[in-house]
Specification:
mainly beta; 9-stranded mixed sheet; 4-stranded antiparallel sheet; about 45% strand
Length: about 270
């Protein structure tokens, strides 16, 4: 037991830089479970839909659950239990047919980067607005301290139930909401997605969709005034849709900026 605990601790420490630097998403053992099937709910962190396991860290979890066709009615939201320090981070049994949403919401963590690395990160994530603000303040070369949190969702279709509820809003700080069921999208079809920040449409944000089998074939677009963007998904398989939003950090947080990371994974 002591050896297992030590391995888990080493894993958590070694993952710390990656957790701060890259995307986080939910990777279930299957996107198409049978009703009553036990599903392993893995968390992954990385880039280009390639990632490393994130062990369960209870102190980081604000919400980790499966939400079924009944929504938030009694029995509709099922917590995902797991074993501390291990992968998968959670397990769930989806008792009813239909569309299920897996959700993971983390608390805040912090990171500090030097000026050039922070500017490169802003450019990569489409956060040019923050880069311009830093330039106006004469801070382009300055180190920056950031607090951040994760808002991940996954869409599962259990059995032959109706593909309904894929567009449920779960109240995450930053949330990607599909406007149609990805499972029923025709070949080469466009997936409408709305990006919400604190429940309201977020305009001008970069949204990126990455296919697992060909990460270089990613597609992207900026949200309009209504927070919507249309992404042409040109192939079947597993997809990851992601977005990042940043704003000045709250007073008293000890940070310069706060970022919110949203992801949505599914099988098309």
């Amino acid at each position: 037991m002591r050896r297992a605990a030590w391995i888990s601790l080493v894993s958590l420490v070694s993952l710390a830089p990656a957790l701060r630097a890259h995307d986080l998403w939910i990777e279930p053992s299957t996107f198409r479970p049978a009703p009553g099937e036990r599903v392993a709910v893995r968390l992954r962190v990385g880039q280009a839909f390639r990632g490393d396991p994130v062990p369960r860290m209870t102190e980081r979890i604000e919400r980790f659950a499966a939400i079924g066709p009944g929504g938030k009615t009694p029995g509709g939201e099922i917590p995902l239990p797991g074993v501390e320090g291990t992968d998968p981070a959670g397990w769930g049994t989806l008792p009813a047919p239909g569309t299920w949403l897996l959700v993971y919401d983390s608390d805040r963590s912090s990171v500090e980067l030097d000026g050039p690395k922070f500017e490169a990160y802003l450019a990569e994530e489409g956060l040019e607005r923050i880069s311009r603000l830093r330039a106006q303040r004469g801070q382009t070369a300055a180190r920056s301290r950031e607090i951040y949190s994760r808002c991940a969702k996954a869409l599962l279709q259990a059995g032959n139930g109706p593909a309904q509820g894929y567009d449920r809003v779960l109240g995450l700080p930053l949330e990607l909401v599909p406007g149609t069921s990805p499972a029923g999208l025709p070949a080469g079809g466009e997936l409408p997605v709305t990006l919400l920040f604190r429940g309201k449409p977020l305009a001008g944000a970069l949204v990126v969709a990455v296919p697992r089998d060909a990460p270089a074939a990613r597609v992207s677009g900026r949200t309009g005034a209504d927070g919507r963007v249309r992404l042409r998904l040109d192939r079947p398989g597993d997809w990851l849709v992601k977005a990042v939003h940043m704003e000045p950090a709250p007073k008293g947080s000890g940070a310069d900026w706060e970022s919110f990371w949203a992801s949505l994974s599914f099988r098309r």
